[in-house]
Amino acid sequence: MKSSTRLVLLLSALIFTATMGSPPATALSIHSSVSKNHSLSETSSAFYFWGANGHRIVGQIAENHLSKRAAKAVADLIEPEGLAQVSTWADEIRSDPKWSFAAPWHYITVEDNETYDRLPDTPRNEQEIKNIVDAMLYCESVLRNPEAKREKKVEALKFLVHFVGDIHQPLHVGRGDDRGGNTIEVSWFWQPSNLHRVWDSGIIEQEQLSFTEYVRFIDHATDQQIADWQKATYLNWVHESFELRSSVYAFGAQQGDDIKLSYGYAYKATPTVKKRLVQGGVRLAGLLNSIFQ
Q: Is residue 59 included in any domain, yes or no?
């Protein structure tokens, strides 16, 4: 391509961005219902839960807090990649039909009037996994099993990195009627979106930071916070996201089809998002340190 042609294309792209903003968010994902019991929508690989950067942030924070023994075990399984790199694998494989059975593994549906007060038994195989809690229990069991094949351990680690991130996003402990916020259409900084997408990536991307910059800015938990957070169980993680969910729906007087979210909503929600990202990373590290001790 001639340099003049490249210049024209570059200028055209800059003019479009300056005048029109980012492409409509509706172009980024395709939604479909999984089943009556697993009713949160599934998205194409073009759009990730927590967003790609959100998962990388969780993965990198976890890597920062690994013990030497756990760091070596992780490296032995996924080198030359790190936890940040493999954190999006569970979404990337959505484009492969052979992994379609894993779609419900990314979330759990808990209605407003329901309670989730006991952990299920660890699934004995992949066919018994019904939701994200089952999936984390199963992946952990594979990683702790000295007789598990290396290939299965690699898959389990990649899934676990991703699911620990997902469970800390409040809408992954979602309502069935709106599919975890996916059917709630909103305007996010004057662009069409939906509530789930705002929490997956919109709030994070609004900061305009790379995932490494984001990690440098927020990975400052105290020793006491780390100790407290790592004591929490999968059940605690579910309860926390469930309790935070009401704040996600705090639109003020806005209702129906005319919900406009921008600076005010982002200002209130960003501290929660940052805390959940740090908690997810610190807890993932604690879990891996325990598995590989």
A: yes
Residue 183 lies in a domain: yes
Contacts of 68 (CB under 8 A, 6+ apart): none
Global pTM reads: 0.82
Residue type, 202: G
Element (H, E) at 25: none
| Domain harbouring 290, CATH code | 1.10.575.10
Question: Do 249 and 174 meet the contact criterion of CB atoms below 8 Å apart?
Answer: no
pLDDT tens for each residue of 3-22: 443 443 344 444 333 333 43
Burial class for 237, CB neighbours closer than 10 Å (0-12, 13-18, 19+): buried
Beta 191-194 vs 173-174: how paired, if at all? unpaired
Domain, as residue range, for 128: 30-293
* Residues 210-269 pLDDT 10s: 999 999 999 999 999 999 999 999 999 999 999 999 999 999 888 777 899 999 999 999
User: How many structural domains are present in the chain?
Assistant: 1
